[in-house]
Fold this protein.
Amino acid sequence: NAGVTQTPKFRILKIGQSMTLQCTQDMNHNYMYWYRQDPGMGLKLIYYSVGAGITDKGEVPNGYNVSRSTTEDFPLRLELAAPSQTSVYFCASSYDRVSHEQFFGPGTRLTVL
Amino acid sequence: AQSVTQLDSQVPVFEEAPVELRCNYSSSVSVYLFWYVQYPNQGLQLLLKYLSGSTLVKGINGFEAEFNKSQTSFHLRKPSVHISDTAEYFCAVSPRGSQGNLIFGKGTKLSVKP
């Protein structure tokens, strides 16, 4: 199993540009999450999904959108990128909310200039 | 609402010495508790978790943690650290009944020196 994969690994955007961060898992997990990690601030939840077709907002959803058309994929869309979105983005998945072990991808480092 | 406080942002320690990384939490509901480790330029990996039962939890790589409900703490310990334990450690909670959402502390950077 590849686990959780994320693309791209690095990206530089100009203010106002848009992009999609890709996340795929091959563990048949129902639950998927997007976090951002800012230096010295830990991780904060952006969006999550409990299954295909179901998404919900986390703590910091403004400026982002998600979709979940399949169990495997959970892309994160940034519209009109702003410098405040400079961060490292992590995707994670979990089989269910009982086991509570989340498996993390390697992250995408995004810089908005 | 829940919050997690990791009391030390950086902990330097010599190889083979014991270490304790402190974590306190605040919550109006019962929570599950976790420690994750992040090695440089990698994603997070679960070290251990407390869901119920014995308050002393053993995890991977020789780490253990003890849940103290009265002090709302979940400190992580290892009796003898190795150079390879150098990483950032995150304490997290998840409210019981939630969709598994994790609330993280700000992290503690453990530096093990030879």
